[in-house]
Amino acid sequence: MESESMEYRYLGRSGLKVSVLSFGNMTSGWGDGTEQWNFECVDKCIRRGVNFFDTAEFYGLGIAETVLGRNFKQGGYDRDDLIITTKLAPSGFGIQGLSRKRIRQAIDHSLERMQLDYVDVLYLHRFDPEVPLEESIRIINEIIESDKAFYWGTSAFTPQQISECFAICEKHGWIPPIVEQCEYHMFERGIVERDYVPLFDQYGLGTTVWSPMCGGLLSGRYNDGNIPAGRLESSPFTALFRQWYDKHIGSRKEAAIKTLTGLKALADELGCSQAQLALSWVIKNPDVSTAIMGASASHHLDDNLGAVDVMKKLTPEVLARIEDLLGNRPAPSMHWRTFTPNPPRR
């Protein structure tokens, strides 16, 4: 069911309309009480118009899928109103990678864990260099033909790998991918704003972007350049967060503090939170189909959902001020007939 307070966009060149904000349960299943907490998040999202829910077999090695499936059963929601996706990984589930054998088994296991007959989108969760891409795409198409999935996509594939997917599908008359799931936020821009642009233009590729607030670094809680006490404790994602922090703040602390405090001042002027500003900036990009949210506290989720309204305040003048603060607009590609830079994508 659509909500007037939510914006919806088509996912690539498909007929799927997805909420511009979506919910991912990557952190579900890592401790006691997470199932009820996840249900509260799912229920709140659905009541606010979110219809896109993302998970993966790798999250909690299947536990996150189980939790999400139980959440849907608990809420008794209309399956037709929901867009549910999962991702199959090349590692962590034995030696078979993304082979025909493993994908055939994996989709059945995922559907069983989620208590579903089908998923709307099935992703290849990273490129598998040890399995011919043609083999993986062939079985994905068979899964779609058997109605266990309706569409498929890639996650963290390079532009060259995605182009190869389209070439293989064109050669064999197979269903091509409609979406790429990639990292995109104020600190990480090149792949969406430069590298994938030919794919957007040629194939109408959609994007379901993850970590739109860079693991929370853009939320306002790190504006002094330091990591709050306890942030690196008892988390399976400590290494990933530390990598983000070292790259975007730790290695350039003085400049990062200036950028973050500048964003906070601008958010105050707009009457929103810094987290809402960062998230609304992501979904302002028309090449973003949906931004996948996470939450560690209820009020964080409430705040994130308000980003749709804040997006309306991002006038060209405000966007220009953000560019001045970030100072990291990707160098545009060249128009080789005129030898002039192509205009910025945003």
TrEMBL record:
Gene3D superfamilies: NADP-dependent oxidoreductase domain. GO terms for molecular function: oxidoreductase activity. Keywords: NADP, Oxidoreductase. Pfam families: Aldo_ket_red. The keyword Oxidoreductase applies. Residues 21-325 form the NADP-dependent oxidoreductase domain. It comes from the Eukaryota. Belongs to the shaker potassium channel beta subunit family. This is NADP-dependent oxidoreductase domain-containing protein.
